Amino acid sequence: MRKNLSFCIRFFLGFGIIPIFLYFFVSQGDFLPPRKDIEFGVTFSPFMARQLELDPQELFVAIIGDLGVKRVRLPIYWQDIEPEEGKFDFHEYDYYVAEAEKTEAELILNIGRKLPRWPECHIPKWSQSLTGEDFENAVLKQMQEVVHRYKNSPVVVAWQVENEHFHVFGAGCASDKIDANDIDREISLVRSLSDKPIMLTDAGKAGAWFTSLWKNRADVLGVTMYYQVWKPDYGVWQSTFGPGFFWAKRKVLELFFSDKKIIVAELQGEPYGPEILPRYDLVLQKELMTPEVFRETIKKARKAGFEENYLWGAEWWWWLKEKHGDSSLWEEGKKLFN
Fold this sequence. Notes:
By secondary structure, the protein is α/β, with parallel strands linked by helices. It has helices at residues 2-28, 46-51, 56-64, 78-81, 91-103, 132-150, 180-193, 243-256, 282-288, 291-304, 314-324, 328-337, and strands at residues 39-43, 71-75, 106-111, 156-161, 198-202, 220-225, 228-231, 235-238, 261-268, 308-312. It has one domain: TIM Barrel, CATH 3.20.20.80. The protein contains 12 helices and 10 strands.
């Protein structure tokens, strides 16, 4: 009886408490020294700027000028550049590229049909009636136009094809999930037009990551890093997946893809609440993302140790400053980038 009890205790310790302890120790990354030589940038969404009733061009200039950002991930929304079938208008994005060239700010251009910001899929109205091969050919056509237009710009350093393409999330696409064959066709097209690196993205916690790197799909993998989200039945949820989790996941992947680069494409810098910004109470928004929370996120990013991190939320920081007289997050950004 005592032997059985002793065995049960050892078993519980070995396969219960100890693994749980190790999980949280590794996940929180308490053993990791903060990395100082990492680079920060931002994702800039003209679509989000308009959702906040801001002038996108004025905001972009403020981001690369006043904020001092030198790395920008810029989605080129299909609905903006081809509002009518076969009629392309690049004047807005020409402006962003020209301004980036003035300050030598590097751009990752994100192209395709599924791009950052809800509803995730951003397609022109005329394309909504297309299906199957016709729809994908239309996607390829507009991607080709973008690459042709900007491939010779010295500030364009990479092409991001689609956004979280294997992660079923969002609305507005011709299908809920982008077919792997379609992704491969899009990558093949971009590679045939430009020798600049291809980047794919995946969800940080739930994503498999390796699916974007095998078969030589991507040269760069960008992942998301969120520590605070909103659960409908719970409210504010602080993730148990700390910087050590992302560090360990990257280290494992690098064992198999040592020649690939893994970065953080979305580092949380704005509140994640019950509605899309800014459709919920401003007080709650500011409670969810304070300067203190922002600084803590930066500390976690340094512990996770990814060499590049693109913050998510610069539009919201400017909106707080310009529309509500609160420059605290914008000033935190200036400290980080300057």
